[in-house]
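Most newcomers find our protein records easier to grasp once they have seen one. The structure tokens are whole numbers drawn from a learned vocabulary of backbone shapes. The record below serves as our worked example for the rest of this section.
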Amino acid sequence: MQKAYNRYGVFLILVAFVVEAAQAMHHGLSGDVYWQWAAGRLMLQRGAVLHRDPFSYTLWHHPWVADEWGYEVMMAWAVRWLGPGLLWFFSAGWADLALMVTWLRLVRHDADWMKAGVILVVAAIALEPFIRDRPQTLSYFLFALTFWILAAAEEHPARLWTLPPLLWLWTWCHGSFLLGYTLVLSDGVWRTFPRLRHWGRQPAGLAGSAAGIRLRIGVLLVSVALSWINPFGWRLWSYAWHVSTSPIIRNTISEWQSPNFHAGILKAATWLPVMGLGLLVFRGRRPISPFQWFWTGALFLATLQSVRFLPYFGLQWGIPVMEGTQGMGFRRLRGSVVALSALAVSVFLMVSRPMVPPRQAAPSEPTGAVHYYLSHHLQGRIFNFYVWGGYLIWRGFRVFIDGRTDLYLQDHILSEYLAVQNVTENPNTWLRVWRVRYVLWPPGTPLATFLLAAPASWRLVYQSQNALLFRHVGSWGMPVTLSPGG
């Protein structure tokens, strides 16, 4: 009976995996993946990590901490030798691996596959808006794997020695490696203080012993020492911290801001876990590890502060639920109904929209405008929309700005961009400073309205549903130099 019940739970797991695959296969490439792919190809070509900006005209050859270099090289190498289909793996593949590891964590606490499948579907919903060919997706897998290793070490302490190389890889790929080290450190602190260890379920065997604590200290020290072996040395830590806490980035980039609960998918990805955790408080039957409660609460608060933490919360919230509801399942549900419903949902997700080839640009990218520029052999600098910078880099342009927001904090480039974008100052002031010849911009925005209202200075030469290309009329005259706001 239990085997049949669990077998039906597999169909829910299938739905969770298909959610991520459908996101990757139906939307095309967009945003930062283009400059990251271009950076990886350039590093493979040069045989060296980039330390100076090769892509913009605003900060050309300025110092650049390419903290995601490992991921960029790995992706470019895989696509070069194994084909563009690997782009689907670098988005949906890493996310599905994160879900697989999370499922192993769930069933470790309760062998109820149906309940684990429901939790995994909600976790997949939390990951879905963030499925891109970007290193964040890899970090979700590394986050889940770090948690799983720490849990498995309760019975097999030697597995902790897999953490140093894993965290080392993380430092090469994404600034969220700080989360991994914090996770390992907090695990060691929890096991070091007896009062914390005995609150809730006590760790078993060597995990809570003095030898286990010494082992964790050694693993953490080795991990930190390895993290300094990278192209940027110990400075990578301060750089990652600076980017993670920058108020300018937090106030400018949408994924660093609080969730928009008007979006239905964000409502489901946050309130369903909150309801599950609330049910656990009132109906839970078993003690729950304070370590799991701490991380679930911390990631929920982080998500309310910045939506980019939602995937991590989605991968974590089900663990205390499985711990506290052992024996409380869904056995009254008819397994065949669940299986057929899950299979129908999976098929619908895959066929409801046409499949996009793995290297094709998403409709949101200005492909038509770029084709017009190149086919008409136009010349001159382009002032570009922020999210289109990566695509322009991929097509061989030098850009005003792109997704490397941390880089453009130098020399006030970001503040200049925002002044033009929001028309808080006369855009012509800064466009003249940079001798901009063309402006590539989305319609229906303040800057597009400003340029359309100035036909004597700006002529619309190309128009599509999502992009406008303006050309400056005449000469800018003598160059000028201004300080921000001056």
